[in-house]
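Long-time lurker, first post. I've been practising inverse folding by hand and with some scripts of my own, and I keep getting stuck on stretches where the structure tokens seem ambiguous. Below is the full token string for one chain I'm working on. Before anyone asks, I'm not after the true native sequence, just a reasonable design that respects the backbone. If someone could post their per-position residues I'd love to compare against what I wrote down in my notebook.
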């Protein structure tokens, strides 16, 4: 079964950290680029970070220096380490590869 399953979201105070995980199955993981998107209420889904099959990373300007994307090809997992979180980071975060999307995990940054 082809699927991506996210976990790790939750409520965190401004300045805090969260680590999102995404477990992949049914895809040739080591040959796949992987992405994290997010969508806040009333806004379009936006690309947050991506990692190529060779490990090259790219980030949205809004998260550079605060978020880190990484992958573990042995475990078919991709991660998003989020530090120095801000209220504007509040959104549903989605894992994506090819045309496959996870169900999303809610991240809420609030005091």
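-- Answer (accepted) --
I ran through it position by position. Result:
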């Amino acid at each position: 079964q082809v699927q991506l399953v996210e976990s790790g979201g939750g409520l965190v105070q401004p300045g805090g950290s969260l680590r999102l995980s995404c477990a992949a199955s049914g895809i040739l993981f080591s040959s796949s680029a992987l992405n994290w998107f997010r969508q806040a209420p009333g806004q379009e889904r936006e690309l947050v970070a991506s990692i190529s099959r060779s490990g090259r990373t790219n980030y949205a300007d809004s998260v550079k220096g605060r978020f880190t994307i990484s992958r573990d090809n042995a475990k078919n997992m991709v991660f998003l380490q989020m530090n120095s979180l801000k209220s504007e980071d509040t959104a549903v975060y989605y894992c994506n590869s090819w045309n496959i999307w996870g169900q999303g995990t809610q991240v809420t940054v609030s005091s």
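A couple of notes from the structure itself: The mean pLDDT is 96. The CA atoms of residues 31 and 53 lie 5 Å apart. Happy to go over any region you disagree with.
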